[in-house]
Write a structure and sequence with these properties.
The complex is a heterodimer of chains A (about 70) and B (about 280). In chain A, helix 1 runs antiparallel to helix 2. Helix content of chain A is about 80%, strand content about 0%. Chain A has two helices and no strands. By secondary structure, chain B is an all-alpha fold. In chain B, about 70% of the residues lie in helices and about 0% in strands. Chain B is built from ten helices and no strands. The chains are: A mainly alpha (about 70), B mainly alpha (about 280). The interface between A and B is medium-sized, with 11 and 15 residues.
């Protein structure tokens, strides 16, 4: 069974690396929406912070993307 | 004309024209032999060595930004015209929301760098969805990598010049962390601040634009090929319609991505500079 599978294992690695950031970005955006709805006057701050949070959470997926090219 | 020549000519003219230059009688889905053909242009313009289409677009983007700022801010009327007010709102957005808003009052002097960064990346990203250009110059790693290195040099230089050598010590030996964990947090911070920051900054922009360019090319080109080869394959050409419609949906989505990624790159550059100006926060 296993020897029938062919292709770069890095593809599987990138898929695994994308799971965590996917969940993380969901949490970040969900909480940011809650903050914006509860305090619309602070929506600007929440939006900026949300993009920052997304950017930092994304880092792991991006490292996985790079490893895919390196491997 | 060989297959490779046709593809190169096609990608040179853009996505939709690329589809038209494929020969549907031979191969209906004319995928390139190598995906790099969508991103590399070997033909040199005017015979100048190294002056390819990508190089031309880089200079063109720079010229567009310079012209936009020059003509937008040339007259400085008290009651601005339409063009001047667009240029002024751009400058105000970068200055108030990004430079001063993130870095603080002393961030105003970084406005020049952040504004050039934002406008150049915005133009470069929007080339992705500009008809007859259809190629984001930021999907070549050289551009994001160069700007990430410039940002890295700026925030490391600012960190050392504002705080002396304690900038480095505070990063690898953070006082706010319990002593037992301090070496571990310091190690993570060392890798994250000095190595991963520029890499992720560059790769984020690069990856988003590569993915967008690939999706647009695949969907629009293959949809168009199916539709345009209706004489050869008959009713089966209808399968091209949902692909083309889906491609147009992605097209709208890519406008958002192009603007957002330019904004995020500038925002993160400002945040990294801010962490060097006020390292304790």
């Amino acid at each position: 069974m296993v020897e029938e599978l062919a292709g770069p294992i890095a593809l599987v690695g990138y898929g695994l690396a994308a799971v965590g950031p996917g969940v993380g970005i969901g949490i970040v955006v969900g909480n940011a929406i809650q903050a914006m709805v509860r305090q619309p006057e602070m929506a600007g701050v929440a939006r900026t912070t949300m993009f920052l949070g997304i950017a930092f959470t994304e880092a792991l997926a991006l490292i996985g993307f790079v490893l895919f090219f390196i491997a | 004309m060989g297959r490779d020549q046709r593809l190169e000519k096609g990608t040179g003219l853009g996505v939709i024209l690329a589809a038209a230059t494929c020969d549907p009688a031979e191969d209906i889905i004319c995928a390139p032999a190598n995906v790099l053909e969508l991103f590399e242009f070997k033909t040199e313009i005017l015979g100048i060595p190294g002056f390819t289409r990508t190089t031309f677009l880089i200079f063109f983007a720079a010229a567009l930004v310079i012209a936009f700022l020059y003509f937008g801010l040339r007259k400085r009327d008290v009651v601005p015209g339409r063009f001047q007010s667009i240029a002024e709102s751009m400058v105000t957005f970068v200055k108030e929301d990004i430079a001063v808003g993130i870095i603080g009052p002393e961030g105003a002097k970084y406005t020049a760098y952040l504004l050039s960064l934002f406008l150049f990346l915005l133009v470069g990203n929007l080339f992705e969805i500009t008809p007859f250009v259809n190629f984001p110059i930021t999907s070549r790693m050289a551009i994001p990598a160069f700007f990430a290195i410039v940002t890295w040099v700026i925030f490391v230089f600012v960190g050392f010049s504002k705080n002396g050598f304690s900038y480095f010590i505070d990063t690898v030996w953070p006082k706010s962390v319990p002593i037992a964990l301090r070496w571990l947090v310091g190690l993570i911070e060392l890798v994250s601040v000095f190595i991963l920051r520029p890499i992720t900054l560059a790769v984020r922009l690069f990856a988003n634009l590569v993915a967008g360019h690939l999706m647009l090319t695949l969907l629009l080109a293959s949809g168009w090929i199916f539709i345009s080869s209706v004489g050869d394959i008959g009713v089966r050409a209808l399968i091209g319609i949902p692909w083309f419609v889906f491609g147009l949906g992605i097209f709208v989505f890519e406008i958002v991505v192009a603007i957002l990624q330019a904004y995020i790159f500038t925002l993160l550059s400002a945040v990294y500079i801010q962490t060097s100006v006020h390292p304790e926060h």
